[in-house]
Design brief:
257 residues, globular
């Protein structure tokens, strides 16, 4: 637990467990029915960013993505891979949902450790809902995983393994806690390194890319045919990743807003 980013120990110990959150697997408050199915085709783009840490109304410039999206018709959806808020307060989460709804395209939220601080899971539950879900589309399948407690759990990984069997098109996975670190001085973020091995085994040659945050540092590597990308924090760097999918392959651009 002490390896999590921007620690607030009081908030960290006052947070809910994974099993309780996964019970809300069919609870969608923020995502609309039309967001659950995407028509993408063979060529499309999307944006991934992480660790906004909205706090006391400070959105870190997240709303400026609206202009980026408006100027680029190829961008079909946005994913934010956790720590959307600093402490999971209702007001900060409401700011996120209001901004995301203004984008005009689906924005898929991933829960992070900071989003459940201070027993604030009820706010996520009532405003957003499920923390593990699948988005099906023509051209791609998206999987969002809950790693806010620094582990996935057997049931969640079993679910991922089953669901991958019916995934269509390109496959992208999104979670908060990073599987890899960029240097020997870094710390592995998962509490059980065996889970990392199982994730890699499940995704091997079945997934195009897995996107993560949490570490506030970029790391980009390919393992078992899968591109694993940890994105630097939006809070400090204002950086997002623009992913372009073409019939010839996938490219990644890291852009400062």
């Amino acid at each position: 637990m002490l390896t999590s980013c921007n620690n607030d120990l009081l908030g960290l110990f006052r947070s809910v467990g994974l099993d309780e959150r996964l019970q809300e697997r069919n609870n969608f408050q923020f995502l609309r029915p039309e967001d659950m199915s995407l028509s993408l085709g063979n060529e499309f783009s999307f944006i991934v960013l992480t660790d906004i840490h909205i706090e006391d109304g400070n959105t870190r410039g997240f709303e400026k993505l609206k202009d980026v999206i408006a100027a680029d018709n190829d961008i079909k959806f946005v994913v934010v891979t956790g720590d959307i808020t600093q402490c999971g307060t209702r007001g900060d989460l409401e700011q996120f949902t209001a901004i995301a709804q203004s984008f005009g395209i689906p924005c898929y939220p991933v829960i992070g450790n900071h989003d459940i601080y201070f027993d604030n899971w009820p706010h996520w539950k009532s405003l957003i809902g499920s923390t593990r879900y699948r988005i099906d589309g023509i051209g791609a399948t998206l999987f969002v995983l809950d790693s806010a407690n620094s582990y996935f759990g057997k049931d969640q990984l079993n679910w991922l393994e089953r669901e991958l069997r019916s995934a269509n098109g390109r496959v992208f996975v999104f979670t908060h806690v990073n599987l890899f670190v960029g240097s020997s001085g870094g710390m592995q973020q998962l509490t059980d390194a065996k889970e990392r091995a199982r994730v890699c085994s499940i995704l091997q040659n079945r997934c195009d890319s897995m996107f993560m945050g949490h570490a506030h540092k970029r790391d980009d590597r390919k393992v078992g045919g899968v591109q694993y990308i940890t994105i630097e924090d939006f809070k400090g760097s204002r950086t997002y990743c623009r992913v372009s999918v073409k019939s010839t392959g996938i490219t990644y651009q890291f852009i400062k807003l």
